[in-house]
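Dear support,

We are seeing what looks like truncated structure output for some complexes. This example has two components. We would appreciate it if you could run it in full and send us the complete C-alpha cell output so we can diff it against ours.
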Amino acid sequence: MYVLLVYDIKERRVGKMLKLCRQYLHWIQNSVFEGEISEVKLKELLLKAEAFLDLDEDSVLVFKSCTQQWLQKEVLGQERKRLDAFL
Amino acid sequence: MYVLLVYDIKERRVGKMLKLCRQYLHWIQNSVFEGEISEVKLKELLLKAEAFLDLDEDSVLVFKSCTQQWLQKEVLGQERKRLDAFL
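Here is the complete output from our reference environment:
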C-alpha cells in the first residue's frame, strides 16, 4: 500500500524520527515521507516511533491508499532529493 | 476533490501561509491541511501563495484525489482541533 506520513514533533526528537522513517519510506519534505509499505512494516514503524515519542506533544499522521495512482501530486518549490537511496 | 496540502516554509512567512490556507482548507497538523476544494479554488490558493513564497527556499506539496474515501487515516498523538470552524 502507498502511504504518506507527516509528523509534527518536538525538535529534540526530530532526528530520531527522521532516521526511523528513512528506514521505511522516502523523504519528500521537511517532515513528510511517502512510499510503498506493507501493513506489517507500517505497524513496526509506528511501534518504534511510539517508543520514543511523547504523544501529548507529538503527532504523526498516516494517510493510506491501496495504490498511488489516485494521488496526483502538485509541487510548488523544491521537492527534496531522494537521499534515501543512499541509506 | 479532496486534497492534502503540506508546506515547508521559512518561519517569517509561515503566519501568512497559515492564514491563507485556513481560508480554503482545514488545519490538521503544524504545516498540514486537508479538505474538499475545487480545482479553481486550489489554483487561486496556490497563486496567492506563490505571490509571497520564495520557491528557492519554500516548498508546498499538494496531494489530490477525487474522493476522500480512498484515504484511510491513522493518527498517533493529537490531531489538531478544527479551529477553522471559527474563522
